[in-house]
Amino acid sequence: MVRRYRVWAQRPLIWISHRARWEQTGLSEHGKRPTTGPDRPGAGLRQQLIRRFWLALALFFVGLGSVGAVLPLLPTTPFLLLAAFCASRSSPALHAWLYSHPRFGPLLRDWRDHRAIRPRAKVTALILVALSWVWMWVSVEPLYARLSASAVMAGVVVFLATRPHGPGGSGAGERRDDE
């Protein structure tokens, strides 16, 4: 019992985070034993590996998003959304950095708060989808491949066109004053 107290005294933030997680799920109120935590042998190592996996994925997606900001054919926003998701599961510091970044932060905040895509990003994406569709019809031979890719691209275009512009904008057909 004394040893457990010393472990908890050395790592109070871990205990608090586990307790908060248990209270959110309602496990601590009913007195059930948690499925993860420091009382379970091997759970700490497993949690560390899972967090490092999420962190590696987050950094990978940040890298792809950064390359996508420079290269015109590689999208930026989907990779940054994936990076933010992975960072939220692994690193609060990286997650906060992404949302406070001067270039990436506004895109992520618009999506998180309003499920919106900025007009410039939307127009760029639609133009690139149209150019990709034309290039595909010129370079791809089998008709079934053209038709299936066209169906996917049509779904992407409909999705992009139906997203709102952001705070104050309701959809693709409505212009805002700051455009």
Descriptive overview:
This protein is mostly helical. It has two domains: 42-114; 115-169. Helices cover 72% and strands 0% of the residues. It is built from nine helices and no strands. Helix 5 packs antiparallel against helix 6 (92-100). The longest helix is centred in the first third of the chain and has 28 residues, at 43-70. It is globular and about 55 Å long.
Give the count of helical stretches.
Answer: 9
Provide the succession of SSEs.
HHHHHHHHH
Residues in helices, as a percent range:
over 70%
Structural class: mainly alpha
Tally of discrete structural domains: 2
The gross shape turns out to be globular
Q: What is the distance, rounded to the nearest whole angstrom, between the alpha carbons of the first and last residues?
A: 65 Å
Largest sheet report: none
Mean pLDDT: 76
* Approximate strand percentage: under 5%
Question: What multimeric state do the chains show?
Answer: single chain
Q: Tell me the Rg in angstroms.
A: 23 Å
- Spans where pLDDT lies below 50 across 5 or more residues: 1-31, 172-179
DSSP strand tally: 0
Features:
179 residues; mainly alpha; 2 domains; 72% helix; globular; disordered N terminus; disordered C terminus
Sequence-ordered SSE layout with sheet pairings:
Blueprint: H1 2-10, H2 12-25, H3 27-30, H4 43-70, H5 77-90, H6 92-100, H7 105-114, H8 119-139, H9 143-162
Helix pairs in contact: 4-5, 5-6, 6-7, 8-9
